[in-house]
Every structure is written in structure tokens, then in C-alpha cells.
Amino acid sequence: MTTMSQVHQLHGRKVKFDFNHIPKHWIENDPVSTHMLNTAHMILPAGEFWFCRVFNKALPFVKDEQLKADVKGFIQQEAIHGRTHQHAQVYFDQHGLDVKPFIQRMHYLFEILLGENPVGIKMMKKVVGEKRWLIFRLGVIAAIEHYTGVAGQWSLDNTSLDKADPIMADLFRWHLAEEVEHRTVAYDLFKHMFESEFNFQISKNALMTFIFPIMAAVWIEGGKTILKQDKDAGKFRHMGTLRLIMQMEKISRKTDHIPTFSHLTLATIRWFSPKFHPVQEGNTQQALDYLARSPSALRAEQEATLKMS
């Protein structure tokens, strides 16, 4: 099995950011890209803490020691990602943006619908089966992690964020670099739970069929939630979903401030190949190179070294 631990050991970097002076449009003159990225602060705290809970449930089933070490490193990193985006929510309060109802819906999605009881119904656990429900949720995470890995590589290749607010740009680049760093773990863990390659391929493809449209719908709804309240967002405040998607594609092609929808669609198509593996989707050394110069990651490493000395 190919795992990230064969390259290096995954570990969480205890980064810190000062969110007290972030401009509302921290990507200047681009409210759409700003708020589409800001959606991460609303979705990821609940989502990434859920990742950690599900992966902890899966640990007893992992027989491969390298994979087990990678899963533990993944959990460390995702827990820090969740806390960091949670801390970033102060940005919304500072700019008078009420996103609490959307955040509550995300907690309901991950903690209830995708919690320990399937769709929040206790009796369904006996119907579905505890292990089968665990495998299903691991598959959901693997599918989501495909997009975070793809977005991570996009961020490493991207130069347009050099002109954005340096603190928020570093937050996203640090986070996404770690997504590239651990991009194989969720996929390898999901596959590890199957005895049959055929059943694995059927399951991964079936899951992606509905994960992609749900992810897109949730993310776009999050962006719309912020844009509606942003009095400085102009014509984008009340756009319908289809028109907003078209504008996002136009803006991303022109500026590269966010990945294009077509880029993510092509990534989805690659997932369905029987030869697919996330290791093909990114450059680990490029991710480590960014983490070695990220201001927040550097501070975290320096503080960790001081504590050990």
C-alpha cells in the first residue's frame, strides 16, 4: 500500500492567525471569490471535526501500521484546520455578516444526518449496520478529500493570491498545502475497509455520483448567504444559482482567484477511472516547500522547537 508515511510522517502544525484586521473583501475588488472562499469558515469546522470522529471510529479496523500512522497524522491536521476556521468566524462578526443559521445547518448535517445514527434515526443503525455506516461515511470523506487535494494543488500553482490579504491568503495556502500533503490518506483508508476491489470501485463511484452535486450546492448556498448580506457586493447580492455559477466561472478564468468549475468537473471525471489514485493529483514536495515558508507554519515549527529545547 502506498501511503504518505513512506515519504514522511504527517503531523499537525499548531498555527495561529490574527483575524482582527481582515478587510471585508480580502481579495480586493472581488467579493465573489472572497466569499466563496469564506464559505470554508462556515462549513469546515463542523465538517473537519466530523472527519476526526469518523476516522477515530475506523482506527481499530486498520491493520496496516503505515496507514494507521497516516490516519493519526490526518486527524491531527484536520482538528487544527477545524479550529482555525472556527477562529476565523470572528471575521463575519466584524463585518456585520450573520452566518449563524448556515453554520447551524452544517452542524445538523454532520452531527445528526451523518452522525452515529444514519440520517439521525437510531433504529436505522440496526438496519444499515454499524460497520457499513462507517464505511459509507469514510467514502464520503474520501470523495470530499479528492476536492480538497485538487484545490490544494491549485493553490500551490496559484500566484493571484499574492495580492490578497496576506493573513487570509496564508491561512488558505497553509490549509490547502496540508490537504495535498495528506491527499492519499482518506482514499487509502476507505479502500482498506474492502476485501473486494470490485466492491470498492462500485462504492467509490456510486458515492461520487451524489457527493459532487451536493458539495457544489452546499458551497454555492454558503457563498450566496454571505453575498446577500454584503452591501458592497453590487450585482452579485441577489443572483440566482445558475447565473452565479456562470459568473464564478468567468471571474475564475479571468483572475484565477478560485478554481474554475470546469477544473473541478474534470477532477470529478478522473475519480471514476479504475486506475485513479489521489497520489496522481498533487505534488507533495511542492506542498512541503510552501509549508516550509508559510509564515504561520514557520511560527508553529519555531514554537514547537522552543518547547522541545
* Range of strand content: under 5%
| Helix coverage percent | 55-70%
Q: Label the overall shape.
A: globular
Spell the H/E element sequence: HHHHHHHHHHHHH
CA gyration radius, whole angstroms: 19 Å
**How many alpha or pi helices?**
13
Mean pLDDT: 94
Main pleated-sheet profile? none
| First-last Cα distance | 36 Å
Whole-number tally of structural domains = 1
Task: Summarize it.
It is built from 13 helices and no strands. It is mainly alpha-helical and 309 residues long.
Describe the fold and architecture.
The protein has 309 residues and is mainly alpha-helical. The protein has one domain (28-301). It is 68% helix and 0% strand. It has 13 helices and no strands. The chain has helices at residues 31-58, 65-87, 90-94, 100-113, 124-128, 130-157, 166-181, 185-192, 197-229, 241-255, 261-271, 284-293, 295-308. Helix 6 crosses helix 9. The longest helix has 33 residues, at 197-229. The radius of gyration is 19 Å and the shape is globular. The chain starts with 30 loop residues before the first helix and ends with a helix. Residues 1-6 have low confidence and may be disordered.
